[in-house]
Automatic annotation (TrEMBL):
One of its GO terms (molecular function) is cyclic-di-GMP binding. This is Glycosyltransferase 2-like domain-containing protein. Residues 188-398 form the Glycosyltransferase 2-like domain. The keyword Transcription does not apply. GO terms for biological process: UDP-alpha-D-glucose metabolic process.
């Protein structure tokens, strides 16, 4: 045992040296990846040959095989993941100058079903006001599958095209295909109704189409509100949106293999590429992923433009997040059933592997459930998942585990951590397992469901129905942990060697951290505002009938603003004008505390509204600065528990 500890210590020190060099040099990053994969391969050989519970009964044998399958499945996911990251994507950007003045016609599709008029208005105006050398070549289409008169009037009032249809066949894909039938642009932009393109969206993307074989471009989906992880865990300052790593890192690496995935919005298609596949794919609820794959199978090139060029609304409640991921999971299973990437002619071998990996990812929820339940089954019910000594764990498992932490942290470049990934996977595991098993085995007839956006409510509540699977897992894990502590303390007897307890205590502790945070996710906090505020420091004036008052904006949107007055003694009338950069907005004060006042806008001209958009939602990508997140899970855990405990006592 002493020699094994020395081995682990030397391994850790050597790997730490490689880790710090890997932050700067790609060669050492690849060495770190190789060490991780090699150590994991050695670990799996040991697992297969020496740790299966062959003599502990049929239940233990089944549990052991399931755990091994989960580990092998996770290893396969890691192999594809790290293969994509061996080389950093350094493909050059392209500007409009590449087109040499020959600018294509562009149709912008804003697909909507039941989104709020306020959400649509900002998306439509931002799309209409996009900068482009020949604005007459840009047409905006509102594709309304909700057949709403008020949206028709909104579109007409903003001088954009309005299209609806008699039926709702094939949901969003059918809606987009209807748009193709009634438009003629050489390029087609798809935007979800809540997505607001930045004013330089076209300037930063259309130049790539100088390549006549380019089928589509995907830009990241980013979000200007806080998702349920950030909001319900009081973690907006600590963690980014849970989609950031996929949207901005994984997609960039897929681009190296011409396997960029179309994600349904913020994308630009060459119309001919869509014609070649008979329009947007139908028959599955993830039409976006299928559409991109089919275009690539036709031999078209694709590109990922890794710039924040459009932002929208992330799901705002835990329930909505679950519904969204349930749809994605089921949709991926439907895609493999209808268009198995491995059998799709025209895809390269690596494209097939990457698409299969994307589908396989959704099965990882099942793997996670196995990892969560294995130590519980052993300690509470005596069901083995593996038979291993502490020496074996330290010699074979620990090097693989430690290398995995460092390799992932280097590859993610601070955008994600292993612990944070563990939290995300734990939160989703029960629900994604249900979705994948239900769709895979029973072909559930779930229809396309639009994720709610612009949700606001003023009460704190706990979603007990959704929380129950996580609470059951948390309760069982906690009981197993308590039993392990009592066994190690000699309070209660246990038939097995205490080394097995030590192994499972670490395992349970690792799971408990994620389960505790997962249990807070259904704790919905109030969301009072229907529109997000954006910080600013613009100098403004408040103009009344007899005075002009100087002040400074602190935050604002198209609905209202916060402002700090220069003079605390200033008396304001019921209504007055806010003047900012020459734009005049009629408003009233809603609350005041000393020099700080809150404003609600009552009359906003279209010109002023457009100006506000360019300074907030649609701020040019060259002016926007993304906040840096620490992604420290223990800080999030402490803050979450403190804040929710405080709120409970306040109630």
């Amino acid at each position: 045992m002493e020699q094994i500890i020395y081995f682990d210590l030397i391994f850790v020190l050597c790997l730490l040296g490689i880790y710090f060099l890997a932050k700067k040099y790609q060669l050492f990053k690849n060495i770190l990846i190789a060490v991780y994969l090699l150590s994991t391969l050695v670990y799996l050989v040991w697992r297969v040959g020496y740790t299966l519970p062959l003599n502990e009964g049929i239940l233990s044998l089944i549990a052991g095989i399931l755990l091994l399958v989960a580990e092998v499945g996770g290893c396969i996911l890691s192999l594809v993941f790290y293969r994509m990251f061996i080389n950093k994507n350094k493909r050059p950007t392209e500007s409009l100058a590449k087109l040499k003045g020959q600018y294509p016609t562009v149709d912008i599709f804003i697909a909507t079903y039941n989104e709020d008029e306020m959400i649509l208005k900002r998306a439509i105006l931002a799309a209409r006001n996009l900068r482009y050398p020949q604005k007459e070549k840009v047409n905006v289409y509102v594709l309304d599958d909700g057949h709403r008169e008020e949206i028709k009037q909104l579109a007409q009032g903003l001088n954009v095209h309005y299209l609806d249809r008699e039926d709702h066949a094939h949901a969003k894909a059918g809606n987009l295909n209807n748009g193709l039938l009634h438009s003629q642009g050489e390029l087609v932009v798809t935007m979800d109704a809540d997505m607001v393109p930045r004013e330089d969206f076209l300037e930063r993307t259309i130049g790539y189409f100088a390549n006549e074989n380019l089928g589509f471009i995907q830009t990241p989906q980013t979000f200007f509100n806080h998702d349920p992880y950030q909001f319900n865990l009081f973690a907006a300052e600590n963690i980014g949106n849970d989609q950031d790593f996929f949207m901005q890192s994984i997609e960039a690496q897929k681009d190296l293999f011409n396997a960029t995935m179309y994600v349904g919005s913020n994308a630009i298609f060459r119309r001919q590429a869509l014609v070649d596949i008979d329009g947007f794919a139908t028959g599955v609820i993830t039409e976006d992923m299928a559409t991109g794959m089919l275009i690539q199978a036709k031999g078209w090139e694709t590109r990922f433009v890794n710039e924040n060029l459009a932002s929208g609304l992330a799901p705002e409640t835990f329930g909505d997040l679950i519904k969204q991921r349930d749809r994605w999971a089921r949709g991926n299973i439907q895609v493999i059933r209808k268009w198995n990437p491995m059998h799709l002619k025209g895809l390269s071998w690596m494209q097939k592997v990457i698409y299969m990996d994307g589908i396989h990812y959704w099965v990882s929820g099942v793997y996670k459930m196995i990892f969560l339940l294995a130590p519980v089954l052993f300690l509470l019910f005596g069901i083995y998942s593996l038979k291993a000594s502490l020496a074996g764990i330290l010699l074979f498992w620990f090097p693989s585990f430690f290398a995995s932490q460092l390799a992932f942290n280097v590859v993610s470049e601070g955008k994600q951590t292993v612990l944070l990934t563990n939290v995300y996977e734990t939160v989703m595991a029960p629900y994604m397992s249900y979705a994948v098993i239900g769709e895979g085995l029973f072909k559930a007839k779930n229809k396309f469901v639009v994720t709610r956006k612009g949700v606001s409510f003023d009460k704190t509540y706990y979603n007990w129905h959704l929380a129950m699977p996580v609470l059951v897992l948390l309760g069982l894990t906690f009981l197993a942990f308590i039993k392990a502590v009592l066994v190690m303390s000699g309070v209660i007897p246990f038939a097995e060697n205490h080394n097995a307890i030590y192994i499972n205590v670490f395992w349970l502790g690792y799971n408990l951290i994620a389960l505790i945070l997962a249990a807070f996710m259904p704790f919905e906090r109030p969301r009072f505002r229907k529109a997000e505020r954006f910080t600013t420091d613009k100098q403004v004036q408040l103009v009344t009938t007899n005075q002009v008052i100087a002040g400074q904006l602190t935050d604002w949107n198209e609905v209202g603003a916060g402002i700090v007055l220069e003079n605390q003694e200033t008396i304001l009338p019921e209504t007055f004008d806010l003047v900012v950069d020459g734009y005049r907005i009629r408003c009233r004060a809603t609350k005041r505390q000393g020099k700080v006042i809150g404003l609600i806008f009552e009359e906003v001209s279209e010109a002023a509204y457009s100006y506000i958009l360019t300074q907030t939602y649609a701020l040019a990508s060259t002016s926007y600065q993304a906040p840096v997140k620490t992604n420290r899970v223990f800080r999030v855990l402490g803050k979450t528990m403190t804040q929710h405990t405080r709120r409970l006592f306040q109630r």
